[in-house]
Predict the structure.
Amino acid sequence: MLVIKDLHANIDGKEILKGLSLTVKPGEIHAIMGPNGSGKSTLSSVITGNPSFEVTHGSIDFNEKDLLELAPEERANEGIFLSFQYPVEIPGVSMVNFMRAAINEQRKYRNEPAVSATDFLRLMREKKELVEMDSKLTNRAVNEGFSGGEKKKNEIFQMAMLEPKLAILDETDSGLDIDALRIVANGVNKLKSPDNATILITHYQRLLDYITPDFVHVLYDGKIVKSGGKELALELESRGYDWIKQEVEA
Amino acid sequence: MEQQYIDLYKAHHALIKEHSAAVMNESRDEAFALFSTLGFPTTKLENYMYTDLRPSLEADYGLNVRRLDFPVDPYQAFQCDVPGIDSYLYFVVNDGFYPEIDDRNKDLPKGVIICGLKEASEKYPELVQKYYGKLSREKKDGLVAFNGAFAQDGFFMYVPKNVELPRPVQLINIMRSDVDFLANAHNLIIIEENAKAQLLVCDHTQDDVRFLANRVTEVFVGEYATYDHYKLENTHNRMTNLATLLIDQKASSNVIANVITLHNGVSRNSIEVALNGKHCETEVCGMVIADKNQTVDNFTSVLHNMPECHSDELFKYVLDDVSKGAFTGRLFVEKDAQKTRAYQTNRNILLNRTAKMRTKPQLEIFADDVKCSHGATIGQLDDNALFYMRSRGIPYAEARLLLMNAFMADVLDYIRIDALRDRMKMLVEKRLRGELSKCEGCVICQ
Ligand SMILES: Nc1ncnc2c1ncn2[C@@H]1O[C@H](COP(=O)(O)OP(=O)(O)O)[C@@H](O)[C@H]1O
Ligand SMILES: [Mg+2]
């Protein structure tokens, strides 16, 4: 589904990703862990096509399409979704208008007719329930004045609305209390199917208690330096990252 | 530049007066004398420093001092009524009030007078005399003086004490000529004590020639009266639109002045609101959408002359290409105007590096017990917000549009006529999409 090969990427001329390779197949859950500043968010930005980042080398294919050739909106409509580490506030743009635009663009991309008003409202209600999101929030402007936890829930809500093939969750768990974490994890698990895949970027083992990854990777200094099964996450939890750094530097 | 008009006045002042009304003529020579001294404003003057009007003023325009009729029937040509607004509808073609041809305005409440200023000056000389020029004559301003010397007609509206107009009044200003043309119109609006009225002024151009309009509007709002003044400019880019709006507010009155420039050539709006009684409320706001080489200069003054008044000011601009915007927010608080609350905001988005915006708050506060704030920003669309939307599948152009519409939304919220607000939202969106923003069914706006 997703095949990343020897990816190098810069921001402001500084190289952040330094030869990263990763393959994700349908139905899989991959966890990417690693110390702060190692390039995890950069990876998610590059996959989704954030124009601030420049890819200098390597390739990303998604379902046999060259992703680097596609605009961010095309990647989204191909089925890639990013739950942002820092969701953006958009004053003046209502959640309803925002979601309707997104849904209709996706349908247009698939040559489907625009969603009817009643279907759209039903869909909104259904997905709100899934993530236990307060109705008040969807009447507001996108993320404006949302608490940290509400923003993260809103990301999962949007994911539920758009039903992506590949979801990248960038530290969706950080800053969440146990309840919110459970809700978020629950949402992710309910949306899971054999056809879609998830990349969980996280610092902590915590989220992985709720969502069981098939693979765990350690991203350090712009590269994946270690991969394993879910037991690797437990090891990182107890031993920290220093031993990885030492291994890499040795 | 001025000289040709000075010569013209000297040669034809009798004719000008003959085709106007006595009340308007009383102060004409005085206005001419002032114009002869001041001339047209130049960028050397602080109040005009941002926009050079010379290229607009230098052109050789025709005038119509003999008041010959123009071959146009606006009722036929113009379907620009904002649908659903259901207004009392009036036309001024160039500077002449166009006679009403049907009875659509027949149910005006008793005592309300709406007609041409010349006609009003003849029929109700005492009423007009009491107000005409009371605000404009005080202005040491070349454009206002020019208007005082040459204006022969315009729009007149009188709403007597305690009368509320059930529907908005719509004034369509149309510029119509086969040759480059200049028009000076003078509008006079009187809203008496505890009366209530809404006026929507639409500025349009009909022919592909150069136009210069120099319009002065005086508004008198009585105690406890409520008045909304919406001006919507949708003209072609060979138009120079010079508009002076002078509003006098008495105690406890409530005014909105909302000046929207959707499409234009060169525009200068001088808006002055004087709060001359306690407990006045006023909202002065506006928006500008400009591209190509359009120029819009909004110069605003809010004068807190009396205590315990509240003013809000909000102007927003979206500028593209090599367009130019300017905003001046003059806020004056008199020594005795304690407990003044005055807030001013100007926000601007430049879509292109070549677009230019100049903004200047100008605060003169002489009272000590006041709450005042002002803020101005010039920026681009938020890249993070754009990417966030694109990452949800919304294309770049659409995401930009959502952001620009959102940016303008609060100015539109200051429109207190629902049908007009909805219509404006649509027009703004169309304009931002790059489609022509002309009104639906309109056959003459360019
Ligand atoms: N917008 C930016 N401008 C400059 N440097 C950046 C920017 N975003 C990230 N970086 C740098 O890139 C590196 C990787 O950051 P990031 O991908 O956010 O790491 P992680 O998500 O793993 O904590 C860091 O050194 C960070 O300082
Ligand atoms: Mg990060």
The pocket of adenosine-5'-diphosphate (ligand 1) is lined by residues A 11-12, 16, 34, 36-42, 52 (CB under 6 Å). DSSP finds eleven helices and 19 strands in chain B. Residues 396-412 of chain B form the longest helix (17 residues).
